Amino acid sequence: MSTTTPTAAGIGALTLRPLDPLKDAVLLHSWVTHPKSAFWMMQDASLVDVERAYMEIAADEHHHAYVGLHDGVPAFLMEKYDPAHRELVGLYEPEPGDVGMHFLVAPTDRPLHGFTRAVITAVMTELFADPATARVVVEPDVDNKAVHTLNAAVGFVPEREIQKPEKKALLSFCTREQFAKAVSA
């Protein structure tokens, strides 16, 4: 997975590569423990904790992690998972073609206007590039209003609040058709 995704004018090229839990651990640690990444829920994680968490993902056939590159420089994280086996087991009835997703834009002191929206659009484009993906499922914290706005911008429709072990989440879905309509508007 290293597809270049067309992005909004002035953003640059966004690509994805598989995450290497050991080589990328220091970088990931700086991202997930940053105050701007509070909703990632790894604020107090040590470097070893981050290595261990992403080594578990790398060994999991139902969960995958990717580093997103902006013009070749690491700038975001994307995870995809099978919600029938991870994260949402027992919390909703998965349908064939459901794919779960998380994304995190690296904290920066020099934000680029439109970048986060370009990232979520690139992530969704990548997920829907797989013809087996019919619907993307997300479960952000109910208090993460910024991500709810981004999700709506790419076609997600909230279904209901759910209680996960670590948080109260807003279960939301986006079909291929909803995404296409949202990004063409």
What does this structure look like?
By secondary structure, the protein is an alpha+beta fold. Helix content is 28%, strand content 26%. The chain has helices at residues 25-32, 47-58, 115-128, 145-153, 176-184, and strands at 14-18, 63-70, 73-81, 98-105, 135-138, 157-163, 168-175. Strands 1-2-3-4-5-7-6 form a seven-stranded mixed sheet, sandwiched between helices. Helix 1 crosses helix 2. It is globular. The two termini are 27 Å apart. The model has no long low-confidence stretch (mean pLDDT 89).
Gist of the model:
The protein has about 180 residues and is an alpha+beta fold. The protein has helices at about 25-30, 45-60, 115-130, 145-155, 175-185; strands at about 15-20, 65-70, 75-80, 100-105, 135-140, 155-165, 170-175. Helix content is about 30%, strand content about 25%.
Provide key terms for this protein.
alpha+beta, 5 helices, 26% strand, 185 residues, globular, seven-stranded mixed beta sheet
Topology:
Elements: E1 14-18, H1 25-32, H2 47-58, E2 63-70, E3 73-81, E4 98-105, H3 115-128, E5 135-138, H4 145-153, E6 157-163, E7 168-175, H5 176-184
Parallel strand pairs: 4-5
Antiparallel strand pairs: 1-2, 2-3, 3-4, 5-7, 6-7
